[in-house]
Amino acid sequence: MPFPLFALMLCVFSVGSAELVIAGILPNIAQDNGISLADAGLLVTAYAIGVVIGGPLVTLATSRMSRKPLILGLMGLFIAGNVLAAVAPGYPVLMAARVISALTHCTLFAVCIVVASSLVPAGKEASAVSKVAVGLNLATVLGVPLGVLLDQHFGWRATFWAVAALSAVAALLVALFLPRHAVPVTAAAVEELRVLGNRRVQLAVAITVVAMAAVFTAYTFLAPLLTDVAGFRPATVTWLMLVFGIGSLFGNLIGGRLADRALMPALVGILAALATALVLLAAVAPAQWACVALMFAFGVAYFAVMPGLQARILTSVAGGAPTLAVAVNISAFNIGIAGGAWLGGALLDLGTGLRLVVAAGGALAGVAMLVALGELLRDRRAARYAGAPAGDAPEALPV
Questions:
Q1: Domains 3-185 and 195-388 share a fold
Q2: Rounded to 5 degrees, what are φ and ψ at 253?
Q3: How far is residue 175 from each of residues 69, 71, 168, 180, 216, measured CA to CA in Å?
Q4: By the 8 A CB rule, do 336 and 210 touch?
Q5: Residue 121, class by beta-carbon neighbours within 10 Å (0-12 exposed, 13-18 middle, 19+ buried)?
Q6: Other C-beta atoms within 10 Å of 389: how many?
Q7: Pick the CATH number of 195-388 from 1.20.1250.20, 3.20.20.70, 3.30.360.10, 1.10.10.350
């Protein structure tokens, strides 16, 4: 991986680890701060709200800033937020520190994705996105376990200190290796806002929301499915989640390459694979070996779809003002995650059972696939009318 892309990937790894590790260290945070576990859980909620609401606003406010100084500034603020968390004298300051960190999350991811796509030849954007997004995979399979390990041996403050140190290394690599003019800043705030009125951008964001809701309707309740339905021991679930994580790493890289070759056909096919994997997982969950194989397939399909979802915004629908659209799409990921977790819980409250919850995730993936298929067919019709090869003239479509 080229050093500039590696630097961006390390930024994503740092931020992703900080977002995800909090769930594993909540018990010690609650105990040390004399608060309930439910109150400690609000640290997760506050972070998510900061990403969804604050992220696009920060992106809009910084739309005219040069990309390299912007990344360095955001990383500096992120480091400050984690240092503040590490030294927080109490819960209110810790909450403020999490909100500060969250305000950098969405814009930093969006800018890293846009810059990464500018560093590669045309037609390779999705692969560049997937390489940067590997940071999220590594945050899941490496960053979170190491953060929890630090918490267990040295306390939760050590976890935040480690995130801050890693982020400082990432910022240093950005300063050393990322070209200052990696991507031109051409879009004013009004142009970035205008892109959001594009129907095709709105549909791309809608596909992201539904696809992520599909994933997290099922993923949120994987552990009880594996223990209560498949009959695995609780200790085995950790290893099965590692199987899922390895599948997600492969899926990220495969999805980027497929999207580079044929973006919308790949997106349709991967969403169909995701729907199939979830429906089959629900159907064969009591069969342990089949369950293991489908956990891997689920991980592959989940992360294979992510580069295509971002590349659709970058290369097909956002034109010369992609940063805010990408930031909104990142917010859409979080909206889908929250919505899927809520839907799965609501279905369980209705007494549907864990297998039907996972099947509902498959149904949502099918809905996302149908929307993507409609966009593929629309692109091809527009290309034919423009006299261009299918899929090469998305700009011919009306806003």
A1: yes
A2: -70, -40
A3: 9, 9, 10, 9, 36
A4: yes
A5: exposed
A6: 10
A7: 1.20.1250.20
Q: For residues 307 and 37, what is the distance between their CA atoms, to the nearest angstrom?
A: 35
Domain limits of the chain? 3-185, 195-388
Q: How far apart are CA 36 and CA 114, in angstroms?
A: 40
Topology adopted by domain 3-185:
Growth Hormone; Chain: A; (1.20.1250)
3-state secondary structure of 362: helix
Inter-residue contact 95 to 40 (CB < 8 Å)? no
- CA dist., res. 64 & res. 46, Å (int): 28
Cα–Cα distance, 306 to 363 (Å, whole number):
18
Which residue in the block uniquely carries the two structure tokens 């064969």?
284
Q: Give the closest residue to 300 by CA, choosing from 339, 251, 228.
A: 251
Do 309 and 329 form a contact (C-beta atoms < 8 A)? yes
Q: What are the tokens at 77?
A: 């603020």
Ordered per-residue pLDDT tens for the chain, 399 residues: 778 889 999 999 999 888 877 767 877 888 898 888 778 877 877 887 888 888 788 887 877 788 888 899 999 999 999 999 999 999 999 999 999 998 998 889 888 888 887 777 777 777 777 788 778 778 877 787 788 788 888 989 999 999 999 999 999 999 998 887 655 555 555 555 666 667 778 888 899 899 988 988 888 778 788 888 888 887 787 788 778 888 888 888 888 888 888 888 999 999 999 999 999 999 998 888 999 999 899 989 988 888 888 777 776 554 555 667 777 777 788 788 778 878 888 888 888 888 998 999 999 999 999 999 998 898 888 777 765 554 444 443 433
